[in-house]
Fold this protein.
Amino acid sequence: MSTAVSPATDQAVAEYDAVVIGAGIAGLYQLYRLREMGLRVCALDAAADVGGTWYWNCYPGARVDSHSYVYQYWFSEELLQEWNWQERFPAQPETERYLRFVADKFDLRKDIRFNRRVVSARWDDHARRWTLITEGGEVLRTQFFISCAGMLSAPLVPPFPGHERYRGVIAHTARWPRAGLDLTGKRVGVVGTGATGIQVIQTIAGQVAELKVFQRTPQYAVAMRNDRYDDAARAALRARYPELRAKVRNTFAGFATDFAYQPGEYYRMTPQQRREALEKLWAEGSLDFWLGGFPELVTDPAASEEVSEFVRGKIRARIQDPVLAEKLVPYSYGFGTYRVPLETGYYDVFNRDNVELVDVRQTPISGFTENGLVVGGREYELDVVVLATGFDAGTGALTRMDVHGREGRSLSDLWHRDIRSTLGLQVHGFPNLFTVAGPLAPSTAFCNMTTCLQYQVDWVTDCVAWLRDHGHTAIEPTAEKEQEWVKHHDEVAAATLMMRTTSWYTGANIEGKPRRLLSYIGGAGNYHRICDEVKASGYAGFEVA
């Protein structure tokens, strides 16, 4: 790092080759890779420590729903041998400990500035450098601006009026108090029943005096089968690491398993054979039921309905009150077209006397009072309101940074009109901005995060190395290349059932957000092949200077 003084701001300016935003899974690895190249690089994170998602989301019951043996880094053999996963699906504390272990092992913290939130990023057309300004007024200038801020890092807080006069505690799951929150014996309301809400609800139901679950959209959730590992199990997994490292890159969703059945096989089976296949997948107790079974699940309406009804039956069987069961069963969309959570005892919670389901689809929450929330004129008195209300996914982290690219164009204005990118990695008009986990890549929703994030970091690193090796200072996709990717992305999305469902997958949870499937659904393996071809072509379709 070197420093200078900005004549415009009279502030000391820290000069870098690259600045990475975020110190989570992608940010830590990106920092490691660029530092290995010998670049002057630092990472900025709004948190007080490493972890990203697993720092902020420390709410009760937070847990990974990818298998631990694929939810990890592959770049260091020593790391693979030294870290011992305790569970098949690790809880938040274990995952955060893992990321801290990585940061310590590779001495990454020395190049991370914590408690730093970027509020402005400007590209200088003449100098071909980015200037970043933090909330505290620090100024950084860099050749490469690499966002690893995450696809689900901009919390959505619904505008319920009256929250300022509420005398209880309001806690968003994505900004949970690091010291914890004692809910024992409290009257608690949970707003939202997506993946996060489900984890909270099933965890706290036995601790609280009363639990009100405010549900807008019922969920299809798969019963999790979580195993604890002993030394023998870990040794068996380690023996498979070379195979797993190669395999995850080529599967549809970046997991160790791919679709168990070939396209068309669904209809070559008898109804009984299909039922037996679904039961076998269900017993596996993982997301394999969604992304490791029949590809027709998200492309064929008849197959979707049959699988959806199978899952509805599983839900009904868990609820004692048939009237209540029907409120918890989804009918308005097909299984797998909305984020599929894993659950452990979620549906059973509604058999408890201290739990009440409040349906807010037809009668929304009207606001806070001093004592709680009001729905349809009824006041629900609550000591704590937990907001499990989701995120401005895919784009929110960057649109909140006030990013301006070539000729002053605004990224926020662009994405408020039309969400577009090239490979989910760059945006036309924004040279040297790399968007790891940006929109229109599998990592936004349809990939085991560690698989796709590590691949994207490697692609960015190779691109930076290529530019330097060839004497170039800047790169961005052409408008034609970007349109080519957007067209391909949309064609693939249109061949599925995903666009028929109102969900955050399409940005529908944000008023005014343009509708487009935020994540590439052509498969992680296919995406990796396409990106490899771009790299092998010498970045054809990209402008370099």
Remarks:
- The CA atoms of residues 148 and 436 lie 5 Å apart.
- The mean pLDDT is 95.
- The first helix runs from residue 25 to 36.
